[in-house]
Amino acid sequence: MFRCSVRLIKGLTQITWLQEQPVLPNLLYRRSVPAAYLPSRALRVTWPCAEEVKDFSLTNPSWSPNMRNLYNKYMELSQQESWKRLPSYNATATHLIEQYPDSAKPQVTTRLFTRNLDVEDLGFEYVMFYNQAEQRTVCSFQAGPYLESPIGFAHGGAIAAIVDTTSGACTICTVGKVKTANLNINYRSPITLGSTVEVQCRVDKIEGRKIFLSTEIRSVNSQVLHAEATALFIQMKMSE
Ligand SMILES: CCCCC/C=C\C/C=C\C/C=C\C/C=C\CCCC(=O)SCCNC(=O)CCNC(=O)[C@H](O)C(C)(C)COP(=O)(O)OP(=O)(O)OC[C@H]1O[C@@H](n2cnc3c(N)ncnc32)[C@H](O)[C@@H]1OP(=O)(O)O
């Protein structure tokens, strides 16, 4: 059962991003959420208190030893400043909580697709690290049992979502706000539910507003190639 831990404030549908966000830089824009996009049923939503904000990129008891090992490996590399762990909240607006004075907290009525479960273990468990010098992102991803496909392994759409998220994070950290324009995935080997895989993504080239990336998903020992992908992100215009 999902645990509904948020409260509804009606009427507010606008999120204003006021200034640069320290971890994901250059995010400077205003976004309106059309009323039609709001949940049809009355979810109870409110701005979370600081102590209620959960960072999903921190270890939790559902993580497998492989998840923990990858996390520890990149946390150690982070000590040398080559990698940086990316915090992960369950709503876009929550990523920007520190940008707002208390009087201007936006309403949180949406959930990030890959963070839309209130329980651990069942869906997407992942943590991402970014290497600014190399314009690379790695993601340790544990595919939960609710990501099942009809063949019993992880669903191709779930794999696409984690590729989009990892390459999207890499692009946002590199150039700022973007949209996915194109995503091509070759599925090479199924991902067993409950297993942990390593997603490796890098920026290949930047041409004007176009950012091209490539991604590989491999087993934690690198021996099995599960998927390879290319992506094109378009940097959003200043007016957007
Ligand atoms: C957004 C930042 C949020 C950050 C918030 C903070 C924290 C959030 C939390 C976590 C963050 C972590 C990870 C992020 C995760 C995922 C990111 C996913 C993002 C998405 O999931 S987003 C949803 C899916 N996405 C769409 O819903 C896009 C629909 N679409 C459009 O909105 C437009 O279509 C657009 C914008 C793509 C382009 O429109 P546009 O008007 O800006 O640009 P235009 O058309 O002029 O194209 C300029 C040049 O790109 C070339 N070009 C364009 N499209 C192409 C294509 N498909 N193939 C090949 N080339 C293409 C043109 O040919 C031209 O090339 P050239 O300059 O050489 O002529």
Question: What would you say this structure looks like, in words?
Answer:
The protein is of the alpha+beta class. It has one domain (14-235): Roll (Thiol Ester Dehydrase, Chain A), CATH 3.10.129.10. It is built from two helices and nine strands. It has a seven-stranded antiparallel beta sheet with strand order 3-4-5-7-8-9-6. A two-stranded antiparallel ribbon has the order 1-2. The longest helix has 20 residues, at 156-175. The protein is globular and about 45 Å long. The model is unreliable at 1-47 (pLDDT under 50).
Summarize it.
With 240 residues, this protein is an alpha+beta fold. Helix content is 15%, strand content 28%. The protein has a single domain, classed as Thiol Ester Dehydrase, Chain A.
Give the domain tally.
1
Beta-strand content? 25-35%
Q: Shape, please? A: globular
Low-confidence stretches: 1-47
Distinct small molecules bound, one entry per kind = ligand 3IX
